[in-house]
Amino acid sequence: MINYIDKTVLVTGGTGMIGRQLVPMLLKRGARVRVADLNKPTKMSSDIDYRKADLRNFNECKDVCEDVDYVFNLVGIKCSPKVCIERPADIMGPMLQFNTNMLEAAMMAGVSWYLYTSTVGVYEPAEILVEDDVWKTQPSKNDWFGGWAKRMGELQCLAYERQYGSGRCSIVRPANVYGPWDNFDISSAMVIPSLIEKASKNRTLEVWGDGSSIRDFIYSEDVARGMLHMVENKITEPVNLASGTGVTIKELAFIICEYFNVSLSFDESKPNGDMKRILSTERAESYGFKPQVSFEDGINRTIEWYLNR
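Below the sequence we write its predicted structure tokens.
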């Protein structure tokens, strides 16, 4: 296990949904936590060293990596399928810059370990999404540009391992992540925050597609816990962080409708997206990690946070 006492840990994207869960866990372990992000939240612990940084700029990446022992690179662009289709250049370009700049700066700084956050979007649709199948296939057309950008980040980690003879990178591929501090803007939000936002403001919850698509959801706190587990056990091969079980969009919508006591309708003229995305959890479990928050509990926690924010 890693002893974080007197160690500086950098969390990029630390004000986001997963970072908000990860940072307190690191503080409890005794780490000196540095957060690099463009936007400083109104409420932030005085124990955190916040650095405003645009990680598209390599010099700013070098600055935030100075004197750092561990890096958890959570930065990314989370967006709806609609945004992915309509604005792919706004996604792919910055993500390639984040990936390349941060890993290069971290390796130049001589960090002890580096975590790279990949995505379910690197996978081609299949019955079960297994880690070693990624490089035998291509990303889903629904995640084509973002999926390739994240794959390049993974490949960059492997390039350093190949060149220097040993790995210092953990790679995690979270499933569909949800929880407090998510993006609830309907125009760009993912499915869970979008449905919560719509159900809270309408008497009828309208869902895109017929609700038959199946997704693997994981609560943000469990993702943060999984990230720590992989770094602390120095796992270098890619690992899925997921529940390993599928939930239909219709089942999800029913849970949210029941909470808000609203009716449900489906707009079948709109696309469903990939029909099935369930990730294998065999590798994560072989390393001793399992999620702890049930789907129903996670949804209730997310709705309660949304209503009380």
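The mean pLDDT is 93.
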